[in-house]
């Protein structure tokens, strides 16, 4: 009841000075008892540890009591960005932006601030910061691990294909802009020109 994140079986076993297998069995037995008794709470294994949750039947009332109109939902952009990170992690912001087709810097900062995404090193080739989902993400989604994410539809384009198209389009746009700037005034000096779209 006092933990901020799910408590691992090994951690509980160490605190209780009992064998891990015994603690694991006791936790599963308690979870089953709470369910059988119809208690207002569940003991669930999520994100690699155990934690108490409001039972589904009581969740609406508990949310009203705790949140009292303070619910902060994620925007569509944040949900899309979070999905890309969850399925492609570790992933850089530029790759997420390539998949979404828009800049995701601000959205990524929001997800980091909310504890759903975290930095996890850098890409060796480019030095770009890589991101992954956190255990808090797993907890909020009610997942034990990333392997429980639903399968993506097989017809979705691969990120590499989208990135290649995006990079090719960017290179073409830059070449057109450079050519237009070079010939804008006919003197060969660079000037401002906006290509037709």
How would you explain this protein's 3D organization?
This protein is an alpha+beta fold and 197 residues long. The chain is built from eight helices and five strands; from the N terminus they run ααββααβααββαα. It has helices at residues 9-16, 20-37, 59-67, 76-88, 93-100, 105-113, 135-141, 159-183, and strands spanning 41-46, 49-54, 91-92, 117-122, 129-133. The strands form two sheets. The protein has a three-stranded antiparallel sheet. β1 and β2 form a beta hairpin. It starts with 8 loop residues before the first helix and ends in a 14-residue tail after the last helix. The model is unreliable at 187-197 (pLDDT under 50).
* Share of residues in strands: 5-15%
Note the run of SSEs as H and E.
HHEEHHEHHEEHH
Cα distance spanning the termini? 59 Å
Query: What composes the largest sheet?
Result: 3 strands, antiparallel
List the helices and strands and how they pair.
Blueprint: H1 9-16, H2 20-37, E1 41-46, E2 49-54, H3 59-67, H4 76-88, E3 91-92, H5 93-100, H6 105-113, E4 117-122, E5 129-133, H7 135-141, H8 159-183
Antiparallel strand pairs: 1-2, 3-5, 4-5
Helix pairs in contact: 1-2, 4-5, 4-6
What would a concise description of this structure say?
With about 200 residues, this protein is of the alpha+beta class. About 50% of the residues lie in helices and about 15% in strands. Mean pLDDT is about 80; it is low at about 185-195.
């Amino acid at each position: 009841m006092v933990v901020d994140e799910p408590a691992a079986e090994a951690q509980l076993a160490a605190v209780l000075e009992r064998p891990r297998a015994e603690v694991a069995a006791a936790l599963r037995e308690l979870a089953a008892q709470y369910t059988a008794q119809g208690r207002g709470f569940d003991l669930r294994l999520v994100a690699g540890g155990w934690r108490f949750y409001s039972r589904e039947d009581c969740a609406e009332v508990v949310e009203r009591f705790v949140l009292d109109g303070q619910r902060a939902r994620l925007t569509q952009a944040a949900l899309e960005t979070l999905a890309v990170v969850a399925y492609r992690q570790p992933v850089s912001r530029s790759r997420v932006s390539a998949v979404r087709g828009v800049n995701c810097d601000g959205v990524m900062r929001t997800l980091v601030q909310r504890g759903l995404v975290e930095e996890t090193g850098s890409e060796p080739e480019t030095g770009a910061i890589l991101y992954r989902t956190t255990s808090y993400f797993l907890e909020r989604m009610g997942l034990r691990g990333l392997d429980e994410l639903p399968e993506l539809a097989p017809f979705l384009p691969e990120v590499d294909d989208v990135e290649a198209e995006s990079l090719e389009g960017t290179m073409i746009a830059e070449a057109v802009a450079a050519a237009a700037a070079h010939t804008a005034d006919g003197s060969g000096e660079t000037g401002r020109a906006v290509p037709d779209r």
